[in-house]
Amino acid sequence: MNELKIFVPATIANVSCGFDVLGLALDTVGDEMTIRKVSEKGIKITKILGQDLPLETHKNVAGVAALALLTKANCDFGFEIEINKCIKPGSGIGSSAASSAGAVWAMNELLGKPFTITDLVKFAMEGERLASGVAHADNVAPALFGGFTLVRSYEPLDILSIHTPKELYATVIHPQIEIKTSDARNILKATVPLKDAIKQWGNLGGLISGLYTEDYDLIGRSLEDYIIEPIRSILIPAFESVKQEAKNAGALGCGISGSGPSIFALSKGKKTALSVANAMKLVYNKVGIDYDIHVSKVNTKGIKILDSK
Ligand code: HSE
Predict the structure, then answer these.
(1) For ligand 1, what atom is nearest to the CA of residue 257?
(2) Are 70 and 43 within 8 A, CB to CB?
């Protein structure tokens, strides 16, 4: 195999109560990438469609992640990367993570899988470091593992795959503004009051338990963020109305996707997820804000091969 064309899923990080540790992969939205072996050593980004992003390897998140892998691999050839970006940068659904994760995943396949998925997460985190200044793993881990993932520890890196209930659907609305993850992180407070931490870790435990036992009510009760959302939600137009209407339409819970501005809701079943989408759209139609909207099952497979040569 010399060339792989892959689908790399968009991801929802944090999932309300799990800032920097919890994430999930989506099924119907993602990037396409082609990675091929070439005789010339090193990494070359040869084409980027859909977005205006740097082609220079050191300035591109996919390039930086690929270089991180290459320094640990023993190979006398190189790789070319083409990216068809369907996930808009600054949308809050893991755009930089998809490029970083896709590059290293495909390279590992083409090399005969010398690395574990957790190794690949580590390489892809270097792309996240370039994008936001912080090597967080809560988007790249679900992109690479699929389903829900929990970063139990960063040092050493310990990532757990979490069970995904079969009927769980996500609705994601993206108001057409861009929020840089670095900006959304800079406004956060460095310390957390103990009373908020108690509520938050109660919810994170509850959510993990709800996912394993497929207890949708428990999942809904646990989807609350007492620490990050109160600060970041002021950056997102009509956030409280979208959240309220999503819940009125039957969503189990609703919150900020990653660092925003996208807002996600989780629902039991596709029918409810579609009703939630309509309710969210109505809010933005009323206030006159443009948006993209996605309804997707949670993607338990992660990255998919579309073609190989
Ligand atoms: N956990 C990160 C943040 C995710 O919220 O800043 C960014 O997509």
Answers:
(1) 8
(2) yes
Q: Reply yes or no on whether the pLDDT at 30 is more than 90.
A: yes
Residue 138 alpha carbon, nearest atom of ligand 1: 1
Domain 168-297 = CATH 3.30.70.890? yes
Architecture of domain 3-162+299-308: 2-Layer Sandwich (3.30)
List the catalytic residues: 128, 181
Q: Residue 24 contacts by C-beta under 8 Å, 6 or more apart in sequence? A: 11, 12, 15, 142, 147, 148, 149, 164, 170, 298
Mutate to test the pocket of ligand 1, among 11, 14, 186 (most ligand atoms within 8 A of CB): 14
The residue whose CB lies within 8 Å of the most ligand 1 atoms, and thus the one to mutate among 136, 150, 180, is 136
CA–CA separation, 250 and 86 (whole Å): 29
Residue 146 CA to residue 159 CA, distance in Å, equals 12
pLDDT digits (tens, 9 = 90+) for 149-158: 999 999 999 9
